[in-house]
């Protein structure tokens, strides 16, 4: 059964239009609110290093965003706190991000941030200041299903803004204490609500980049971060080969590649070549034609189940393998205590180790895990 909560809600305020609108909506409904912004990364820390841009303003989690969040809190007359979590963000998000790329995988820092900070540390902080729940500007829905005795995560009304892919790691405890007030709104409707409440940032653009990487160039970021840490770039150069083993040339490091990549391969070919596979042990990068990108199976580990307690029998679901991927039909089955094999009806393009595989039943998130090499 759902718990009874007090009337105090902590708002995760990013300084964007979505979380600001959530704060205005809940304030109008009569809730007691406390605004919290997580300070996760010093945007000036690596600016201008190793070719990274010097200009860092106007980005997600920037000082501009903190200012905007504080200004909204002042307008709504709610308490506001800036919570410094830079150390934990570096430990749980930035370091794994760098390590994954150096191992030839393609990580999702937003999912790690959600799992370790936005729905973990933020809830802990909220309860310390007397709030039983948090509310965020994510586009998702959650509800309690008494028949299953579980909290269910669902896709939002605005399919183009669906963020459930990044939320597959939420626990039942976290879902029970989280509110997604924008789940039934489209983005244009949210901007209209923001204007109705007199929020000056109603037209503020959305951020599209990884928050801690100026300019979005992760390769330069990795170089700059390792240099700052006094660490040498590990030697991960190796051969570029075809699927049948023909050596086409050499590359400068596996962190320069991701599955499905076409540009920057460093070899010429009469027809386009794509990265098919990255071998972290041999540092071999396999390339081939677009038709070779398709695969009929994937393996996922580090599982988290939401609509079910566990996968006890093969289940037919739709599987999403990247944020912008249209989910594909597949059957998932356990092949180990923490391993699932997904077998697709039709081959899917560019299954990428390090990304998430999220399983859907209609609009419900069944669960998900991290794609591993077969």
TrEMBL record:
Cell compartments where the protein resides: Cytoplasm
Group of enzyme by EC: transferase
Catalytic reaction equation(s): S-sulfanyl-L-cysteinyl-[protein] + uridine(34) in tRNA + AH2 + ATP = 2-thiouridine(34) in tRNA + L-cysteinyl-[protein] + A + AMP + diphosphate + H(+)
Pfam families: tRNA_Me_trans, tRNA_Me_trans_C, tRNA_Me_trans_M
SUPFAM superfamilies associated with the record: Adenine nucleotide alpha hydrolases-like
Domain tRNA-specific 2-thiouridylase MnmA-like central: 232-288
InterPro entries, per the entry: MnmA-like, MnmA-like_C, MnmA-like_central, MnmA-like_central_sf, Rossmann-like_a/b/a_fold
Active-site residues annotated for this sequence: 113, 211
Record-annotated site: Interaction with tRNA: 138, 355
Origin superkingdom: Bacteria
Binding of ATP, residues: 12-19, 38, 137
GO cellular component: a single term: cytoplasm
Assigned keywords, A-Z: ATP-binding, Cytoplasm, Disulfide bond, Methyltransferase, Nucleotide-binding, RNA-binding, Transferase, tRNA processing, tRNA-binding
UniProt domain tRNA-specific 2-thiouridylase MnmA-like C-terminal: residue ranges: 296-371
Its EC number(s): 2.8.1.13
Coiled coil: none
Protein's job: Catalyzes the 2-thiolation of uridine at the wobble position (U34) of tRNA, leading to the formation of s(2)U34.
Family: Belongs to the MnmA/TRMU family.
PANTHER family: MITOCHONDRIAL TRNA-SPECIFIC 2-THIOURIDYLASE 1, TRNA 5-METHYLAMINOMETHYL-2-THIOURIDYLATE -METHYLTRANSFERASE
Protein's name according to its UniProt entry: tRNA-specific 2-thiouridylase MnmA
Species annotation: Acidipila rosea
